[in-house]
Amino acid sequence: MNKQLEQEIVTHSTVDEITSRTVDYLKNGFPVHFTGPTGVGKTSIALHVAKKLERPIVVLQGHEEMTNADLLGDFNGYTKKLLVDNYVRSVMKKEETMRENWQEGLLLEAVKNGYTLIYDEFTRSKPETNNLFLSVIEEGVLPLYGSKHKEKWIPVHEDFSIIFTSNPSEYAGVHETQDALLDRMITMELDYMDPEAESAILSQKAEIAEEQAEMIAGFVSNLRDKCLSKSKQGPGIRAALMIATVSKDKEMNISAEDEEFKQLCIDVLLHTVHKGMQYEKKSRSLSLITQEFKKAFGGNNNGK
Ligand SMILES: Nc1ncnc2c1ncn2[C@@H]1O[C@H](COP(=O)(O)OP(=O)(O)OP(=O)(O)O)[C@@H](O)[C@H]1O
Questions:
Q1: How many CB atoms are located within 10 Å of the residue 291 CB?
Q2: Single residue among 145, 160, 189 that ends a domain in this structure
Q3: How many CB atoms sit inside 10 A of residue 104's CB?
Q4: Does 171 share its domain with 293?
Q5: Keywords, A to Z (predicted)?
Q6: Per-residue pLDDT tens over the stretch 66-76
Q7: Mean pLDDT of the chain
Q8: From CA 112, how far away is CA 114, in angstroms rounded?
Q9: How far, in Å, is the centroid of ligand 1 from the Cα of 85?
Q10: Which of 45, 118, 193, 237 maximizes ligand 1 atoms within 8 Å of its Cβ, making it the mutation to test the pocket?
Q11: What is the pLDDT of residue 77?
């Protein structure tokens, strides 16, 4: 099972509001699309919503090499069956049969059985591959062209729902979304969570005290804001989770006096902050992190 499927979501007001609206839209037959920068919780909320629909969940990960065969299914080799019949001792009968193995595609499976499909990062797949979704959404049928099926199409089950997620088109490896597809879904723009929501997630997921989580979330979000002010991406909740998890595991002091903790923060943040701030010299990014580090954790000795 997908690891994220088993994870418990930490709900906060944004998650609750988005979830309730999305469930309404999906129940009325409209696909929903969460878009936004990396790490804002698109996949987590999509999974949370999907669980509310109480149907089996299928997660499809968009990628450049995705083909119709991946979505609809394909033959993936042969199985050889050898039957040896030695019932009458003097007669040995051997029968060999070959059978093509059919692997059903995830979209076909979901459409046929009325599952909830999460199509994560769907703009990483080529637009021509995603064209299949136009028929699914608009006509309520899944065309089976080029798939060796006897039928030309199958009807979409009435319980089938679909949630798309994507990163903005300026991200590397992301295709522009076709207008025709966008026009048929409700697109909700998700933004970075506020520091309170992030610290609740840190505290629960890394099992650290609330005030420590607040300090780490505030520190990372200040650095992120500095990068965003240059219209660049900054460190997100994943970076904050790394800091929280490793510092807890290594029993570091969440304090400016702990050199090991400071090194951990630099290791996790320097590359992203430097990319975001676009300074010529790395030492400038390092100074920025050190300065924010002192502001966030200086004078504090909150221990473990
Ligand atoms: N509400 C939440 N509760 C618990 N964990 C969360 C929540 N929101 C985000 N996270 C955690 O934060 C990290 C990023 O979340 P998620 O993968 O949902 O973001 P995303 O917007 O889909 O990112 P990407 O665009 O990179 O796929 C994950 O480790 C996830 O488990």
A1: 11
A2: 189
A3: 11
A4: no
A5: ATP-binding, Cytoplasm, Gas vesicle, Hydrolase, Nucleotide-binding
A6: 888 888 887 66
A7: 87
A8: 6
A9: 57
A10: 237
A11: 65
